[in-house]
């Protein structure tokens, strides 16, 4: 245990609390409680969706599908709630299954976490499924776990016939 | 995309869908990142022109407008402009840097200069197409500027940009609407017809495409001019 050397707010992470956090997060997204969801992001958080052919790439030197910082992400949420994001008005129905949660590493108050996901999206009598894994960096905030980095890596070879990724993955 | 490929031809060089379809990009996203959006919307917005280039090819040209990169990399872009003036002279540098163009190469290639994107698409069925798009980048730029260019591109384009998903949604909606073709058999693209120089908000560029497509479907040799002026079309045939 490394707890002796750590700050008070850096108590060791447990897979149980991480799993509960990710399931809560999935519910916020499925229920379109996007402002509450946004509050789970630290001020320096990033939301990343790498390109399908370069899942391990760095957003600074590769063209990503999404490379939001906190400001862009706040705008994304505001747009989705505004009613003028036509692609999500009426909004998609989504249902996410989050499984296989693992704590990969823990240091300096940060947890590197992975989990598998499958998100079904229903819109205009079409059903699309987005399958992949999350790679998150979590930290402890004033009222629970928070995302420092939230990376959704899709296993899909193409986004066909999905065509668009207009909700938060 | 679950739409006929010809709808994406129209969409890619249609000047007037931008503000209503991409309202959230101009009025929310650009404002959220602190940009002045008056070049896009409002009374001072800049009008461009639409041209039929013959053979079904067409272009719309507008004065260059504010984009994320014109704010995040202003200094670097100004330096590029200085070098361009040295290389090609002020007049040509003005034409290159102060205008944006959506250029359509008949039948399925689009170059959009403000995003440096190349787009092509292939119909697999009357109501489904596959689309490929590329972001092009200058060689030898700094990693920082390259990152600004990536940010600029995905702010609007791609499956998760703040622009493209609304285009997908609009075109798929149009495709569903066209199922009523027996009851509503025409799609009107007469806007700006008869105007001496149609603007980029008019539909000359779409008519140029459709006239050429129609001629080929009818196994006609022409029209190759594809302009609104019948006498020119006939002369070209």
In the predicted model, the low-confidence regions of chain B spanning at least 5 consecutive residues are: none
Largest interface chains and counts: A-B, 33 and 33 residues
* Count of helical stretches of chain B: 10
Assembly state here?
heterodimer
Indicate the structural class of chain B: alpha+beta
Strand order of the largest sheet of chain A: 2-1-6-5-4-3
Taking the alpha carbons of the first and last residues of chain A, their distance comes to: 34 Å
What's the helical proportion of residues of chain B? 40-55%
Average pLDDT reading of chain A: 94
Report the principal-axis shape of chain A. globular
| Secondary structure: number of strands of chain A | 6
Which value, in Å, is the CA radius of gyration of chain B? Answer: 19 Å
Main sheet attributes: strand count, strand direction, barrel closure of chain A: 6 strands, mixed
Number of strands of chain B: 6
Topology (SSEs and partners):
The complex is a heterodimer of chains A (169) and B (237).
Chain A: H1 15-30, H2 34-38, E1 41-49, E2 66-68, H3 70-82, E3 93-107, E4 110-123, E5 126-141, E6 144-154
Parallel strand pairs in A: 1-6
Antiparallel strand pairs in A: 1-2, 3-4, 4-5, 5-6
Chain B: H1 5-12, H2 18-21, H3 23-32, E1 49-54, E2 57-63, H4 68-72, H5 74-88, H6 90-97, E3 99-105, E4 109-112, E5 117-125, E6 128-135, H7 143-156, H8 164-177, H9 204-217, H10 230-236
Antiparallel strand pairs in B: 1-2, 2-3, 3-4, 4-5, 5-6
Helix pairs in contact in B: 5-6
Task: State the main characteristics.
heterodimer, A: 169 residues, alpha+beta, six-stranded mixed β-sheet, 3 helices, 20% helix, disordered N terminus, B: 237 residues, six-stranded antiparallel β-sheet, 42% helix, 17% strand, globular
Describe this protein's structure.
The complex is a heterodimer of chains A (169) and B (237). Chain A has 169 residues and is α+β, with helices and mostly antiparallel strands. Chain A contains 3 helices and 6 strands. Chain A has helices at 15-30, 34-38, 70-82, and strands at residues 41-49, 66-68, 93-107, 110-123, 126-141, 144-154. A 6-stranded mixed sheet of chain A has the order 2-1-6-5-4-3. In chain A, a hairpin with a 2-residue loop joins β3 and β4. The longest helix of chain A is centred in the first third of the chain and has 16 residues, at 15-30. Chain A is globular. Chain B has 237 residues and is an alpha+beta fold. Chain B has helices at 5-12, 18-21, 23-32, 68-72, 74-88, 90-97, 143-156, 164-177, 204-217, 230-236, and strands at 49-54, 57-63, 99-105, 109-112, 117-125, 128-135. Chain B has a 6-stranded antiparallel sheet with strand order 1-2-3-4-5-6, sandwiched between helices. Chain B is globular, with a radius of gyration of 19 Å. Chain B starts with a helix and ends with a helix. The relative contact order of chain B is 0.18. The A-B interface holds A 49, 59-67, 71-72, 74-76, 78-79, 82, 84-88, 124, 126, 159-166 and B 1-2, 21, 23-24, 27-29, 32-33, 128, 130, 135, 143, 146-147, 150-151, 153-155, 158-160, 162, 164-166, 168-170, 172, 176.
